[in-house]
């Protein structure tokens, strides 16, 4: 087994001396966990409890035990270094295990201070004291607690480029706040295991039911902080979704994980998209296009041309169904970090609308239909044209004008009126789920939004009545309608 020490260039030029045998010589960055500390969370939905620290075994399925044994048997040396505890994630590209870091004390675990702080906060212990015989006084017990890591076993079917890319980007992002740091990585033959600090977090399926707007504020402050750092490095994460942002409500912080689909801005270059041109260029190209001069004026029936000799357009579509930005669906070839901001908007919409998943499309065409149902055909056509595409639909339920976000959130969450804080969050939502990526908020701009800088604390318990709250303002129906229109234009 070889250790990958995360050098940006030539990360796969593995060190010949496996650091398994020479832990003291390793220079890998490590995290610091406060000794003697335990977490005092009593939220059953938070994974990774102090019981683990106290060596209590987790309830592990037989099939999981078998799976962990298989990894130990096929990856020589791994069991001398880690005690596999449980399987905590299984995705398309990897399986993630929680493991005890047996050689923790052999390393200088001095990586970034944010994690120090994080662990300090997470692990503030209820003081455990024991009477020491003969001394007649209470002394805190000094207990050597287990240190946990997440072992991400990347499937052998992943291309070496993909694996290298993920590790390299993580290496570049080390020290970035709210981004899960890479501790080290190992390779044995075609198997690669990335070692990350273990982050206790809640399951989003529990969060989205109980989150108040104030909770959303903490969640998104942390997520935008992570995205701001990532985007400053000109890196697109490409797969922003709840399972890739591990949020811990106890400390009101989360970490961004899974850079498996991430890429550097401009690295997938297949020609500049029309959207990257100034408006007047876009307009004149559109007016000269075959569609404008021939198709749109004729009465053609809906469908695809039988003999289309044009080469098919290629663009990166990597991401997850329901979280893809409109420009990804429109096969924009100049995608930017703004695609992540759209996906963050989808998370906010899920929380405000209290529906998960919010979008549930089977494919990209379905996804466009879902979007069109919200935005209306007029805005979808404009958005498509930006990228040199044409959006047409004859689905009768899709209107021309679409709906405002407020209306949509009210409908989704089954309330008659939104609280002032929900309205404020909805204004942020409108800035994130903006069809035009150039008008969409950046992470930095989102952090400067009134939602964070001038928060309206006006939460009502879920299921409560907004009118019971002090500052609620009844709006007249007519005025509301007018506002909807403005929001949609
Ligand atoms: N550092 C970590 N701490 C705790 N859990 C983690 C960690 N990294 C990943 N996980 C868990 O494993 C899951 C899958 O990890 P991820 O990196 O997203 O892999 P994949 O590429 O397979 O989606 C995550 O959704 C999360 O539940
Ligand atoms: Mg993932």
TrEMBL record:
GO terms for cellular component: nucleus. InterPro entries: Kinase-like_dom_sf, Prot_kinase_dom, Ser/Thr_kinase_AS. Residues 82-452 form the Protein kinase domain. It holds the Pfam family Pkinase. Coiled coil: none annotated. Keywords: ATP-binding, Kinase, Nucleotide-binding, Serine/threonine-protein kinase, Transferase. GO terms for biological process: mitotic DNA damage checkpoint signaling. Residues 50-61, 469-489 have a biased composition (Acidic residues). SUPFAM superfamilies: Protein kinase-like (PK-like) (SSF56112). Its EC number is 2.7.11.1. One of its GO terms (molecular function) is ATP binding. Residues 458-468 have a biased composition (Basic and acidic residues). Residues 19-62, 298-319, 458-489 are annotated as: Disordered. This is non-specific serine/threonine protein kinase. It comes from Aspergillus avenaceus.
């Amino acid at each position: 087994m070889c250790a990958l020490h995360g050098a940006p260039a030539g990360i796969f030029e593995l060190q010949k001396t496996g650091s398994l045998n020479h832990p003291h010589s390793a220079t890998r960055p490590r995290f610091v966990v406060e000794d003697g500390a335990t977490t005092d969370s009593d939220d059953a939905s938070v994974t990774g409890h102090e019981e683990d620290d106290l060596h209590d075994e987790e309830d592990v399925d037989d099939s999981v035990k078998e799976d962990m044994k298989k990894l130990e048997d096929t990856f020589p040396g791994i069991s001398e270094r880690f005690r596999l505890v449980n399987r905590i994630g299984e995705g398309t590209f990897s399986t993630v295990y929680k493991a005890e870091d047996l050689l923790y004390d052999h390393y200088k675990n001095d990586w970034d201070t944010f994690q120090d702080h994080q662990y300090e906060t997470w692990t503030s212990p209820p003081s455990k004291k024991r009477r020491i015989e003969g001394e007649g006084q209470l002394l805190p017990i000094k207990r050597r607690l287990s240190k946990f890591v997440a072992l991400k076993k990347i499937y052998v079917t992943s291309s070496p480029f993909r694996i290298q890319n993920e590790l390299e980007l993580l290496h570049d992002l080390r020290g970035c706040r709210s981004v899960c740091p890479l501790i080290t990585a190992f390779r044995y033959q075609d198997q690669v295991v990335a070692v990350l600090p273990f982050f206790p977090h809640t399951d989003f399926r529990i969060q989205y039911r109980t989150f108040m707007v104030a909770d959303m504020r903490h969640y998104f402050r942390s997520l935008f902080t992570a995205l701001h750092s990532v985007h400053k490095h000109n890196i697109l994460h490409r797969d922003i979704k709840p399972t890739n942002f591990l949020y811990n409500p106890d400390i009101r912080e989360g970490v961004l994980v899974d850079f498996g689909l991430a890429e550097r801005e401009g690295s997938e270059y297949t020609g500049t998209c029309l959207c990257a041109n100034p408006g007047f260029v876009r307009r004149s190209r559109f007016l000269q296009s075959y569609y404008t001069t021939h198709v749109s004026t004729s009465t053609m029936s809906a469908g695809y041309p039988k003999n289309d000799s044009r080469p098919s357009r290629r663009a990166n579509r990597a991401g997850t169904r329901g979280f893809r930005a409109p420009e990804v669906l429109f096969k924009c070839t100049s995608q930017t970090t703004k695609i992540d901001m759209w996906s963050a908007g989808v998370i906010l919409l899920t929380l405000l609308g209290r529906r998960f998943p919010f979008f549930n499309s089977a494919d990209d065409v379905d996804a466009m239909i879902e979007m069109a149902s919200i935005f209306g055909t007029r805005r979808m056509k404009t958005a498509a044209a930006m990228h040199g595409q044409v959006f047409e639909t004859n689905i009768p339920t899709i209107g021309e004008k679409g709906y405002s976000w407020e209306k949509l959130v009210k409908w989704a969450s089954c309330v008659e009126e939104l609280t002032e804080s929900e309205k404020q969050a909805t204004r942020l939502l409108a800035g994130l789920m903006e069809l035009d990526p150039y008008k969409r908020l950046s992470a930095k701009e989102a952090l400067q939004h009134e939602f964070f800088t001038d928060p309206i604390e006006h939460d009502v318990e879920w299921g409560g009545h907004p009118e019971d709250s002090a500052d609620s303002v009844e709006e007249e129906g007519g005025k509301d309608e007018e506002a909807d229109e403005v929001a949609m234009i």
